[in-house]
Each structure stands twice: as C-alpha cells, then as structure tokens.
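Working notes for the structural subgroup meeting. M.R. asked for a predicted model of this chain before we commit to crystallization trials. I am recording the input and output together here so anyone reviewing the notebook later can reproduce the run.

Input as submitted:
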Amino acid sequence: MEKLNQQVTDELVVRTLQDNLAIIRFDTHHRIAYVNSIFAKVVGYTVDEMIGMYHKNLCFPEFYNSPEYAQFWDNLLSGKTFHDKIQRRNSQGNAVWLDATYMPVWDQGRRNVIGVTKVATDITARHVELSSVVEGLQKTAQVLNIRSAAGIEHSEGLLHSMNRIVESSGVNTATLSNLQEQAYEIQDVVQTIRKIASQTHMLALNAAIEATHAGEFGRGFNVVAREVRKLSSMVEDSIIQVKQSVDSMSVEVQKIVNGTSDVQQSVEYGQQQVQTAMDAFNAIATSAHVLDEQAQKVANRI
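Returned structure, recorded in token form:
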C-alpha cells in the first residue's frame, strides 16, 4: 500500500523518458554532450563513440553543407523549438528516419541557450513501408495511364473506321434508294407500254373484223392488222418479262436496303459503345493522375 502512495517525481519522469525514448543533447558548438543507449542503438553507435561527436556527423553532406543547416542551428540557439520528420545517417552510412523534437535548453535566468536536447522516435520501418506503398501506388498509376492511353488510341482508331463505314453505308443506302426509285419509274413506263400494247391489240382485232366485212377490198388491210396483232402479242410477252425482271430487281434492292440499314444501325450502336469505352478510359486516366498526385503528397509527408 505504501508503494501505491509513492509520489511521482521529476526524477522518475525523466527516467521513464530515458527508458522509452531516444534522447540526445548537444552543446552550443553542435557537439554531443549526452546520449542515451536507445538513441545510440538507433544510429548504430555505442554511447562512448558518440560523446563529443559533431551533429553534422549524423547528417548527410547535402544537408550539413546547405544554408538550411546553418539556419537550423541559428534558430535552435536563438531559442526556437523544432519538430519534424528528419533524415539522419547511421554508422553504416544508411538513412535513418526519426520523428524528432529539438528543444533549446535555457540557463537559470532564461536569458541564454546553453544546449539543445532532442527527443526522437525511430520511424524508419514505417517510412520504408509507406514509401513502398507509395511507390506501388505510383507504379499502378503509371500502368493505368499507359493502358488507358493505349485503350483510347485503339478506340479512336476503331471509331474512325466505324465512322468511315457509316459514311460508306450512307452513300450506299442513298444509291440503292435512287436505284429503287428508278425501278419504280421503269415499272410505270412498263405499265404504260402494256396499256398501249393492249389498246393496239384491240385496234388490230377490230381492224381484222372490219377487213372481213370489207371482203376482197379488205384482204390487204387484214394482213396488216394480223401483223400488228402479232407484234402487239410480242410486245406484251416482252413487257411481262421486263416487269418480272424489274420486280425481282426491286425485291433484291429492298433486301439490300434493309440489310444496309441493319448494318448501319449496328455500326451506330458500336459507335456509341466505343465512345462509352473512350469515356471510361479517360475516366481511368483522370483517376490515375489523381492517384499519382495523392501518392506524391503522401511521399512528401512521410
């Protein structure tokens, strides 16, 4: 019971922090004045190896040789706290990612900064995992972009071909329609000739009857009437054949017109389907672009 009533002291809190967090302290010359075993383990050194080491030895050259590095320390020594995800270099020269907070340490009068303490958490494994996920997302976005571009290109080619078919089909339909109209006109002409032939046949028959009544004087006239009647019969037979041919042609033309119309409707439906596919490919490309942008944002944050 006595143990449960023990007071939480600052010393106990500090000890707890040291047992669970990576902690390091630098003097005003950027040298390591203190480091716990957790931090030393994260960067691959022993505690003794790190004491007296310069901060820049834990950084990559592109950072410590940059103006940002000097500004970084100027801000800390002027009393500004810094917190962010940072990249540091371990003893093997490999990258280590830390979620770190740099805290200036003031003197008793809070007038001068006499050191800088950093508390950090190793997030290297999480960073590598997230980077792998982001890389996978970016590759997926690239594949989607490539495939959608290919799909759009093929669909555009197919749509162009179908447009040409529709145009040709329209021309053929118009030609066949004209041909059918001409067939109807021929039928009208045939009907007119048939009427004329019928009337000629009746006139020849009447002429033959009158020639018979005329006796000897109508004999020559009867010969002419008989020839006219024979010619009328021949014309009638020819007209029947022409009518049958025109009727057959009209039937076949109508079949072709109907078939062409069906083809045109099918092609137009295909055009709609291709356009739908192109819209889908464009939507995929847009989504892939958004996915790539989101992956870039995540990559910048991890």
